[in-house]
Amino acid sequence: MKLFLTLCTTLFCAGLPAQPDAHLTVTQTIFVVLADGENSSADVYAYLAQAAIGRCADTYIVTGATGLCAVHLVTDQAGFQRALATDNANIVYDGHANFGLGPSFMQAHGGCRQLSDFMNIGEPLVGIDWAYLCYDQGNPDFEIARADYADDPSTPEEYADAWMYYEELPDGAVALRYATAGGDKRMRLHFRRRGFRPTRSMHVTEEPRLIRLVVRGGADDLPVQRWRRLFIKSCYSGQYFFNVFRHGTFFYSNNEVISPYPVTAFIKGIVDGLTDRALCLALNDAENAYRPIEFPMPRYAYYTSFAAQEVNNH
User: Fold this and answer.
1) pTM score of the predicted model
2) How many structural domains does the chain have?
3) What is the mean pLDDT of residues 2-28?
4) Domain span at residue 94?
């Protein structure tokens, strides 16, 4: 599908129109979403400085295999929502998964202070490590309201006693899921007090192992999805978001990921017209290239919801 992009007068490049309201026909639209915790921006900017033939504000024009590609850089929640709602968009997100709560764009404002400060695009119940979100991911004032704890309402004598169970993803990864009622193969979780902030540091445990503090997450900030490809570059993004992004082709991680290179690999793959399988291979190559002392392993997989209905893990 061809899209028309209106360019501002700051776009100046030989062979491209520079007059007000000039139009270019682009064959691919790419959104690069850079959120709290991203580590790809330097590599992305270096690639665009070399590959772009024009720029208008945060939109870069790159020549691709099938025509011109528009690469939009996004650094806020509204921009990510706009990307998800764009027909046939190719989106790459880099940032914290926040244990499945969703992205955060609050670093410049002192971090998230409550659950609603995150871009809520997760499961209805999310298991978090409250202390890690506070002290390792830059949210020192993050608090959880008592009403936001998950609770089995049938047991009023015990507060916040959620249930945990396992879900196996099509690529073989196992995800933790939570509920407020018992059921087949579900395990009861109980509160245990931890830390020096007693009203906020109650964590759900499965004896004798600490699991997570289960809170009410949800996907209230998720718009109508119209994207074509979506790559979430966060640790364990498949376990966290697999059930949320069941629209186009979802590229996700099934392990810890640290390389700054897969975001640029995704952009290049779209520009070069790679197939989904070849694109997934490129993402894994970019991740493993950053880990020369480790045995290479597949850390990214993809799932196509609208076509073959099968997972390809390479």
Assistant:
1) 0.89
2) 2
3) 55
4) 3-99+221-312
